[in-house]
Amino acid sequence: MVQTASREARGPLTQAFFDRIAAVAEGEKLKACIQCGICSGSCPLGFAMQYPPRRLIASLRAGVMEQVLQSNTPWLCVACYTCTARCPSAVGITDMLFPAMREALLMQGVGVPGELQTALENTFRHGNPLGEPPSKRADWIQEVDVPVTDLSADPREVDILWLVECYPAYHVRAKETVKALARTLHALGADFGVLGQEERCVGDSQRLVGENGLFEMLVEENGKTLDRFQFRQIIVTDPHAYNALKNEYPKYGVNYPVQHYTQYLASRLEELRPMLGELNHTITFHDPCYLGRRNGEYEAPRQLIQAIPGVTFVEMERNRENGLCCGGGGGGMWLDSFAYEYAKERLSEKRVREAARTGADVMAVCCPNDLLRFEDAVKVVGLEGKLVVKDIIELIDEARKG
Amino acid sequence: MLDIVVPIKQVPDLVEELEIDPSGTALGLERTRFVVNELDDHALEQALLLKEKHQAQVSVIALDVGDVEETLFMALAKGVDQAIKISGDFGPAPDNHTTARVLKDVLGGLSHNLILTGVQAIDDLDGQLGILLSSYLDLPYVGLVSGVQIDEGGSKATVLKELPGGVKAELELPLPAVLGIQAAEQPPRYVPVSRVRQAMRTATIEERSAAAEGNGHIRVRRISKPQVGAGAELLEGSSEDIAEQIVGILADRGILR
Amino acid sequence: MSQDVFVLVEHLKGQLTDGTFELLGIGREVAPQAGGRLVALLLGRDVRGLAEQLGAADVVLYVEDERLGDSVPEAYRRVLAGLLQEQSPKLTLLPTSSLGMDLAGALSVELNLPMIAFCKQLAVQDGSIVATCELYGGRAVVEAEIPEGPGLALVLPGACPADKGRSEGAPAVEEVKPSVDLAEVRVRFKGLIEPPPGDVDITRQEILVSVGRGVQREENLPIVQELADALGAALSSSRPVVDQQWLPPTRQVGKSGMTVKPRLYLAVGISGAPEHVEGMRDSDLIVAINSDARAPIFNVAHYGAVADLFEVVPKLAEAVKNRGA
Ligand SMILES: Cc1cc2nc3c(=O)[nH]c(=O)nc-3n(C[C@H](O)[C@H](O)[C@H](O)COP(=O)(O)OP(=O)(O)OC[C@H]3O[C@@H](n4cnc5c(N)ncnc54)[C@H](O)[C@@H]3O)c2cc1C
Ligand code: SF4
Ligand code: SF4
What we know:
The complex is a heterotrimer. In chain A, about 45% of the residues lie in helices and about 10% in strands. Chain A is of the alpha/beta class. Chain A has three domains: about 10-110, Fumarate Reductase Iron-sulfur Protein, Chain B, domain 2 (Orthogonal Bundle); about 130-265, no CATH class; about 270-400, 3-Layer(aba) Sandwich (Rossmann fold). Chain B has one domain (about 5-210): Rossmann fold, CATH 3.40.50.620. Chain B contains six helices and 13 strands. Chain B has helices spanning about 40-55, 70-80, 95-105, 130-135, 195-200, 240-250, and strands at about 5, 10, 35, 55-65, 80-85, 115-120, 140-150, 155-160, 170-175, 175-180, 205-210, 220-225, 235. In chain B, the strands form two sheets. In chain B, strands 9-8-7-10-6-1-4-5-11 form a nine-stranded mixed sheet, with helices on both faces. In chain B, a hairpin with a 5-residue loop joins strand 8 (about 155-160) and strand 9. The longest helix of chain B has 17 residues, at about 40-55. The radius of gyration of chain B is 21 Å and the shape is globular. In chain C, the strands form three sheets. Chain C has a nine-stranded mixed sheet. A five-stranded parallel sheet of chain C has the order 14-13-15-16-17. In chain C, helix 4 packs parallel to helix 8. The two termini of chain C are about 45 Å apart. The interface of A and B includes residues 107 and 109 of A. Strand 9 (about 170-175) of chain B pairs antiparallel with strand 12 (about 190-195) of chain C, so a sheet runs across the interface. Bound molecules: flavin-adenine dinucleotide and iron/sulfur cluster (2 copies). One iron/sulfur cluster (SF4) binds next to helix 5 and helix 6 of chain A.
């Protein structure tokens, strides 16, 4: 998959890469690197990279990037944000360096893994990386027993516009979380609606994977769509969407107040609390990178879990800003085989073992990637029957009924 | 100079449900989205690979049906030299005999010594486009091709044709010729959206018009969607019973040797 | 125009293909409807001997020529064009195969004969040729007609059980000398290339037996391999089987593996996770064996057996072998 290195120092790939770096505002910051190596030491996949971040930056500063670009490194980053969060010089490894390398590769059509290509083509064509029909995006509404306003069919002003996002809207397992959230919002008397067929992928992972043109196209389209509806705020099911709407969309003038669903529910905890019955579980919680490390929200999910009577809450050894990524970010969901080829173990598999070591019987999550990857990993490492993966909203929904 | 022409066809995107026209004899095209025929995309990729190897000139041509502009711009973004859209009175869903005649008309005014098409498409009711075109042009044809080499002088092609059981036949034919591509030598390349948008801003699609006469002379009586049961039909009984039933199903469908 | 139905006989390495018998099976039904004979066209280098196996036909016309020996459809096309011109049958059936697909369209143009492709069923009704076709990847069934005929049909594999075209009859066997000059054939045969030994390309297989985590251990793989061998199939798998290195990554079906569309996908001990289904849902026929009745694979399968694979798979392998014997 990875091409053999060429001897040329500045081939077209390298040129495309440096052009990209020069074009972004933070490009200059690369010069601030003090080569301390904290990034490489922190990177959960650094061991598998032919050029872990520090070495990568050293090559870059020496102006010899061709070999780096043709190594396995560009596609191994899962955008977990650990390096960026820890770097003393605030070098934009996750948001700038890796996407720029990937963009150069995509532009030159060199070594783009097929699974990734499919996800990008699907997003371009159908507005979701799964390749599901756009017309079926709101079909889950038929499967839930509370009314949900589909604003594409019934446009009206709502308090909350809920962006469901792709995996939750289509994936059989992730759909369960959507239904649970619909029921809970309904129980709280929230005035909410979804965009139905008009919703398209928010696109944060496409951005991090280097398909900036696709991301910009999605921003434009989503910006226009959002403009046509009236609402007070947005809530999202997926932390990646939260990140994009909070930090990236405003750069393009698309600016709306947004909360992750856990933040919204935490803000209404006093109304929610009396509805919750007892659940007898020992629960640990996995911080999603794009709610926690990238955006500093550690409390809302914990408050929700701890609000459930009967629950014993335990932390994993690595938690909050030190939490280990599930491996699905930054396009990791679409690079599964590629990453496995070099790493031989998925981060999700490591992480469920860490969860099991706490003695918890439930691993709570609040990101669709986490749900899918950990549930899969539980099977792979043989923890079935010992550890169950649940989204926080599923626990809340159960507790509400219990 | 090697001049490669890739005729590409639009077909309904199967990601969405097909709709049937109220007449019951055609697809309902109003809400249908179109995509490039998957194997035409392979033909295009093969053309681009030959372009890189032989500095060939590549043109894509397509009839103005479906969402053809998007497809043509994508081809331009991938690096073809020329994109041509053909208008004419062939209606929204011309059959392949008609399409081949229209293409013949346009190819008359276009230098070509190699024509690459996808070997088939999902809507080929009246036969496959490439072979029909080769016959109207009286050019040699080989289909199910998964490898193409052009000799130094550009006068002949050596191709690999797929036969059953993974065997391939190596065949040689003089140019000009038409090839029906089953698979390009590498998967069709990805074209970043920024490239496509740039092509939309800066590149132009040439327009030609052509006459359409005659057609495939077949009449569609009815189009319907196959009944799909919700889920599998379950086979019951002892292991032997189940095995026998499966064998029966496979035999009925000609799957057993 | 005569009322005869012609069938092109296809053979590989001296063996008649199943497709040939399928076409004969269809021809047997259609010829009486047309009110004519069923005529088998046998072309090749040294093929007279194969005529004995064509008992389903009323007449076998054979053409022998050195240049018909290799896989060059253009040579076939020239001979067939001459033959069909002279004999002018009502309907000619060709297989949707590497050979048939390189003939039908050309004959249609050269002889000005309407043709229908993707045929699953054929009939002659009130003198018209009527075909039921599977188009749009099987998402639509099209009933099409060639009013009055004559015409050509490209028939899909599996349109008729091959057994219907195998019978003992003793057709009249006649040699025909082609009135065309095969020296004019522009396509030249250079050689056959056998598939490289080593790994199979699962995207090109007609039959896949696919194993999942239900096989439990590597030592159990031979049970499934035996079934695959009996069916002439390749083994593919879900991701866990590849993760365990029981099969190479090239055998993985799904989102992060290969997308396959075989004629038969036999899923054994695979639950049918969406990531897996993404890679196989467009297979022509999906049969699943899984011990859990709630396994989502049964939502995409056409046929399913809720059963222990260790019981059913060996029985199935046996049944397939017995049938071949
Ligand atoms: C990002 C990502 C990408 C992925 N990509 C892929 C991919 O490309 N391909 C892929 O396959 N998966 C992929 N997966 C994994 C996927 O989610 C599933 O975990 C996987 O497909 C499950 O494989 P399985 O069906 O073999 O195993 P399981 O889900 O464990 O199913 C085993 C089945 O065997 C049955 N069984 C057990 N014993 C018997 C018996 N004796 N007889 C009959 N049946 C029995 C069980 O009932 C069960 O249904 C991916 C996951 C993620 C998160
Ligand atoms: S952590 Fe920051 S400063 Fe240290 S090597 Fe990495 S990029 Fe450079
Ligand atoms: S973002 Fe995470 S995976 Fe990517 S380089 Fe930094 S630490 Fe490694």
